[in-house]
Design goal:
Layout (H helix, E strand, L loop, with lengths): L7 E4 L8 E7 L2 E6 L5 E5 L3 E3 L6 H9 L12 E3 L3 E5 L2 H13 L4 E5 L5 H12 L3 E5 L20 H14 L7 E4 L6 H7 L3 E2 L11 H10 L9 H6 L9 E2 L7 E3 L3
Parallel strand pairs: 7-8, 7-9, 9-10, 10-11
Antiparallel strand pairs: 1-2, 1-5, 2-3, 3-4, 6-13, 11-12
Helix pairs in contact: 3-4
């Protein structure tokens, strides 16, 4: 079968578990990007299977589950959700996250920036947009051949995410005044938390959904600033729960006013 850039495929060797889009073809090697997972991969043609766009019931169920079902008392009170600055190394995933924020009526600014340039520009972006919540994401991967799970050199972009977090913490030290959500597929969770993130991926070094960082950001933006969030319930809203993302107890960022 012939494949072209833009086709959706799965891989036989991984039991067709993830849907990818072909983004480049280099000789006989196909460069792939996860449709829903923040993952890059490559594959020979003989390992590919054409994805026929049949209904993905698991994905549909997940998207239905993350729809905001909260009802706010609009008669007497008014609400000021936290502002979100979402910096993403992937333009497609960024657009998807911005659409999700828009669906939930949130103030969110999106910036597409390559992971290796994040630390260089992070403080300027924070100064310009003064967000309550900062999302730093894109692509990452853990390579077993390069070292054990604690070795930062074994990760594609965890070090870049850590550097950006540390710069952001120079701008704002408080974990309550600036909530940072960082990481991507298979990131070194412990190092991201130690660098200063409130939430990070990935405790079990698994892939995460493209929307997972945005799900955390949305929930915090819409949570009362005077109350601690329910940490366990928040993590369960993401695609893979505590295996994909973990974090620390945090208050919300939404102010509630009266009268409307």
């Amino acid at each position: 079968m012939d494949y072209k850039i833009g086709d959706f495929v799965t891989r036989k060797s991984y039991h067709n578990d993830i849907v990818f889009k072909i983004i480049a073809i280099e000789n006989d090697n196909y460069i792939l990007k996860g449709r829903d997972s923040r993952l890059y991969a490559d594959s020979p043609i003989e390992d590919l299977v054409k994805y026929d766009n049949q209904r993905d019931e698991e994905e549909e169920e997940f998207l239905e589950r993350i729809k905001d079902k909260e009802t706010l008392d609009r008669n007497d009170y008014f609400y000021l959700p936290g502002k979100i600055l979402h910096i993403d190394g992937d333009e497609d995933y960024l657009k998807r996250c911005l659409s999700y924020y828009k669906e939930n009526n949130l103030w969110a600014i999106g910036v597409c920036e390559k992971e290796n340039l994040l630390a260089m520009h992070i403080c300027d972006l924070l100064e310009e947009y003064t967000p309550d919540i900062l999302v730093i994401t894109g692509h990452d991967a853990y390579y077993k051949k390069k070292g054990n799970i604690h070795d930062l050199k074994a990760y594609k972009n965890t070090q870049n995410f850590c550097n950006a977090i540390k710069e952001a913490r120079k701008y704002e030290h408080s974990h309550e005044k600036l909530i940072i959500i960082a990481g991507a597929c298979q990131s070194n969770y412990e190092e991201l938390i130690k660098a200063g993130a409130n939430f990070a991926s990935s405790p079990k070094r698994i892939n995460i959904h493209a929307l997972d960082p945005a799900i955390i950001a949305k929930s915090i933006s819409l949570s009362d600033i005077t109350k601690d969030i329910d940490l366990l319930s928040l993590l369960e809203k993401t695609k893979y729960g505590k295996d994909g993302i973990g974090g620390i107890k945090t208050k919300g960022t939404m102010y509630i006013g009266y009268p409307r």
